[in-house]
Write a structure and sequence with these properties.
The chain is an alpha/beta fold. The protein has eleven helices and 13 strands.
């Protein structure tokens, strides 16, 4: 077995590419670049190619030293053909990632959902190690999840199982990036919190988060955390509202799937402990008593690396 694989976590705001030791799960080196989806799909491909080339050169490796390239993308995927079918948060549709990367590298390319690969990473080396029945939910630009039953990922009839971010929580609610209205993602993601804060600021609400804002740049999880530490009313209100919605989504998972464990990760969970604690407390309270008494919650323990580590092991699943 070749020691190394390339794992890529392709998200709405960043592309994290890593050289992963498949024997230990250790990230030997990584490159992080901004996605800049507004520049188009080919720019995303170019950044992935540049990142892989950089890792190979900096670590004195050749293509022959790499067993595979695994990509986890935030969206719906055709795993068999390596095509990113629809990724609203990336503004990418029908992008053949496998074909595009194999124009540059003579290395097998595998594709999975971004939270799916995080679940693989956490199951092999992280918070879900030793657990065979769990759900992984990541909250960042959007909200994604993956379902593991008896140690196997449940992908569904069309490979799109686990889209908890697109469960409808309000039939006539806010517009979502997917084109629908009232999706959980439109209420409980970092993007949703950002939208609520910006809307309130435009209406004249005061907030210390204004001190951290830069023209043309998004509100980050770090900015939200700093504002909560300063007990800012507006930010605390918007985050609390998001926690109410997310806890309802998690309660639905608990009641419907009855997992042993829910692993929570993503930028918002990692940076804002107030959001995490409030969410899990309310999720347990909103669930049916029997599963609520047994459910366990954990933060993803691999941090930013859970996705790239999982992606490096996609080849084992034959996608």
């Amino acid at each position: 077995m070749k020691r190394y694989a390339i794992g890529i976590d392709l998200g709405g705001t960043k592309i994290l590419t890593a050289l992963v030791n498949r024997e230990t799960g250790e990230v030997a080196a990584h490159v992080k670049k901004k996605t800049k989806k507004e520049k188009g799909a080919q720019n995303i491909i170019r950044k992935m190619v540049e990142s892989i080339e950089e890792l190979l050169v900096d670590n004195n490796l050749n293509q022959e030293d790499i067993s595979s390239i695994g990509v986890g993308a935030a969206g719906q995927n055709d795993r068999a053909n390596g095509i990113l079918i629809a990724a609203p948060n990336l503004d990418c549709y029908n992008l053949n990632i496998r074909e595009e990367l194999q124009k540059h590298f003579n290395i097998p390319v595998y594709l999975g959902n971004d939270v799916e690969i995080a679940a693989i990473g956490e199951m092999k080396f992280g918070a879900a190690k030793g657990c065979k029945d769990f759900v992984c939910v990541f909250v960042g630009t959007g909200i994604g999840s993956a379902i593991v039953k008896n140690g196997q990922l449940i992908t569904g009839a069309t490979g799109t199982a686990g889209e908890i971010g697109h469960v409808i929580v309000d039939l006539n609610g806010r517009p979502c990036a997917c084109g629908a209205h009232g999706c959980l993602e439109a209420y409980a993601s970092r993007s949703a919190i950002e939208t609520r804060i910006e809307g309130a600021l435009k209406k004249g609400r005061k907030s210390c988060i204004s001190e951290y804002l830069e023209e043309g740049k998004a509100i980050t999880s770090s900015m939200i955390q700093k504002s909560i530490e300063r007990e800012d009313d507006l930010v605390t209100q918007c985050v609390s509202e998001a926690a109410e919605y997310l806890s309802g989504g998690l309660a639905s998972i608990i009641n419907f799937i009855n997992p042993e464990l829910i692993v929570l990760g993503g930028g918002l969970i990692n940076a804002v402990d107030f959001f995490y604690q409030k969410t899990i407390k309310k999720a347990r309270a909103k669930s049916l008593p029997v599963p609520a008494a047994k459910i366990e919650f954990k933060k993803a323990s691999l941090g930013d690396y859970s996705g790239v580590i999982g992606a490096a092991f996609l080849e084992d699943r034959g996608y």
